[in-house]
């Protein structure tokens, strides 16, 4: 148990250092992106996880996940400091925002 | 205008009335869910072949895909639960009214078809949402069936908003 905690702790401590950037998770479920607004920094990674029973996508100018089947994820590294709104083009009422600080 | 809306509405209102006396059991709810989704899949398939409008086509394609997804989940669940969907007045009315709507829409074309299809989709999703909230979810006794109905509810809300958006565009 102690070893497991120590390993987990070590992993959590070193991962951000190794990557030099944070990872943010956005859950797609119940026809929503949660959190709806994700605050990130340039170089961070955003992971969208489709936990819904429907196909969705993450789409904005220059940002295209393609079809995300239920149970799949999409990782995207934030390349610039420009914030933007995105949507699922299959269900245009589903909207989200990436705020880059 | 939209002749099928009152038919669908009457089927689901009858369902609400029945629910007060004795709500549908899980086997009947399963049949209602499958029938309701099948109706919208068939309506979507018809729209895919008839419409020239890209927004209407994209919406119709989404209805076919999403409602097929719901039915896939529903069928998998009833099989797991060893429940055989039991046809009832509501599921039969839904199927019958769906067929009547398709016959009516088959005679239309162009913008008239698009408007009739989208108007019907707005009414359909509003009515099914009402049935989910007032009858289907409250009467579902199996926890997994209830959970599935709760889980699909946001899809009906999103589809309704999507349909209303296209309805406004078509005006």
Layout: helices, strands, pairs:
The complex is a heterodimer of chains A (101) and B (171).
Chain A: H1 2-19, E1 23-29, E2 32-34, E3 37-40, E4 45-50, E5 59-60, E6 63-64, E7 73-77, E8 84-88, E9 91-100
Parallel strand pairs in A: 1-4, 3-9
Antiparallel strand pairs in A: 1-2, 4-7, 5-6, 8-9
Chain B: H1 4-22, H2 26-50, H3 54-81, H4 89-106, H5 110-139, H6 143-170
Helix pairs in contact in B: 1-4, 1-5, 2-3, 2-4, 2-5, 3-6, 5-6
What does this structure look like?
The complex is a heterodimer of chains A (101) and B (171). Chain A has one domain: Cupredoxins -  blue copper proteins (Immunoglobulin-like), CATH 2.60.40. Chain A is built from one helix and nine strands, in the order αβββββββββ. Chain A has one helix at residues 2-19; strands spanning 23-29, 32-34, 37-40, 45-50, 59-60, 63-64, 73-77, 84-88, 91-100. Chain B is mainly α. Chain B has a single domain, classed as Ferritin (Up-down Bundle), CATH 1.20.1260.10. Chain B has six helices and no strands. In chain B, helix 2 runs antiparallel to helix 3 and helix 2 (26-50) runs parallel beside helix 4 (89-106). The two termini of chain B are 14 Å apart.
- CATH architecture annotation of chain A: Sandwich
Task: Quote the beta fraction of chain A.
Answer: 35-45%
Low-confidence stretches of chain B: none
Helix content of chain A: 10-25%
In a nutshell, what does this entry contain?
The complex is a heterodimer of chains A (101) and B (171). Chain A is an alpha/beta fold and 101 residues long. Chain A has 1 helix and 9 strands.
Primary descriptors:
heterodimer, A: 101 residues, alpha/beta, Immunoglobulin-like, 3-stranded mixed beta sheet, 1 helix, 18% helix, globular, B: 171 residues, mainly alpha, Ferritin, 6 helices, 0% strand
């Amino acid at each position: 148990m102690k070893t497991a905690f120590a390993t987990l702790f070590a992993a959590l401590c070193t991962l951000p250092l190794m990557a030099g950037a944070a990872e943010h998770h956005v859950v797609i479920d119940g026809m929503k992106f949660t959190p709806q607004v994700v605050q990130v920094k340039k170089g961070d990674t955003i992971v969208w996880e489709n936990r819904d029973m429907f196909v969705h996508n993450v789409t904005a100018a220059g940002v295209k996940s393609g079809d995300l089947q239920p149970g799949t994820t999409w990782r995207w590294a934030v390349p610039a400091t420009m914030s933007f709104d995105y949507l699922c083009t299959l269900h245009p009422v589903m909207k989200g925002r990436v705020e880059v600080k | 205008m939209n002749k099928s809306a009152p038919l669908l509405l009457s089927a689901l209102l009858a369902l609400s009335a029945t629910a007060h006396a004795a709500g549908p059991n899980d086997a009947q709810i399963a049949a209602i869910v499958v029938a309701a989704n099948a109706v919208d899949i068939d309506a979507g398939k018809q729209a895919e072949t008839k419409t020239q409008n890209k927004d209407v086509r994209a919406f119709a394609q989404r209805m076919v895909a999403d409602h097929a997804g719901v039915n896939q989940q529903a069928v998998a669940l009833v099989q797991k639960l060893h429940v055989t969907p039991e046809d009832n007045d509501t599921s039969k009315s839904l199927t019958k009214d769906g067929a009547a709507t398709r016959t009516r829409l088959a005679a239309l074309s162009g913008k008239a078809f698009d408007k009739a299809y989208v108007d019907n989709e707005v009414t359909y999703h509003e009515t099914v949402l009402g049935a989910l909230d007032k009858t289907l979810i409250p009467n579902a006794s199996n926890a997994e069936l209830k959970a599935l109905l709760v889980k699909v509810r946001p899809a009906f809300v999103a589809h309704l908003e999507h349909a209303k958006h296209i309805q406004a565009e078509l005006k």
